[in-house]
Amino acid sequence: PRTIIISGINDEPSSHVAEFNNGFGCFQNYICKNFILPQEAILNNYTDTVTIKFVISTKGQTRNVRLSKELKYNVGKTFEDLFKNMPTWMPATQANIPVYQEFEIKIIFGMNKYWKKLLPTCG
């Protein structure tokens, strides 16, 4: 006698990337709503670009926040605090087991003719 095994689609262990509450659009909204350029940066028309690396832990917490360079006027600390205090993510999984995941994003910020932000305006 032969044994026949039928494997269904849901039998395969799945993997998922970490996800901010309801997706990347909400992550962008979080940054837009909560990042306020320090007053000294505003007064000096400070504009710059920074790459921010961070890890989402197995419990969905933001860890190991690192900026690609030092920023003037306390902007770096503002970004670090923003990321360290963000809401919990849904952690990444590998074979249905939570795992750490590293992210890297590039942010352009500051006061210029295209973008003028004194207070949060995203909705």
List keywords for this structure.
3-stranded antiparallel sheet; two-stranded antiparallel ribbon; 5 strands; alpha+beta; 123 residues
Outline the structure in words.
The chain is an alpha+beta fold and 123 residues long. It is built from three helices and five strands. A hairpin with a 2-residue loop joins strand 3 and strand 4.
Helical residue percent? 10-25%
The number of helical runs is 3
Class per helix and strand makeup: alpha+beta
Give the oligomeric state: single chain
Q: Give helix and strand order, one letter per element, not per position.
A: HHEEHEEE
N/C terminus separation: 65 Å
Note the main sheet. 3 strands, antiparallel
User: Total strand count, please?
Assistant: 5
Q: Strand order of the main beta sheet, please?
A: 2-1-5
Poorly predicted runs are 117-123
Rg to the nearest angstrom?
20 Å
Q: What overall form do the CA principal axes indicate?
A: elongated
Roughly what fraction of the amino acids lie in strands?
25-35%
Mean pLDDT: 85
Question: Summed up, what is this model?
Answer:
By secondary structure, the chain is α+β, with helices and mostly antiparallel strands. Helices cover 21% and strands 26% of the residues. It starts with 23 loop residues before the first helix and ends in a 13-residue tail after the last strand.
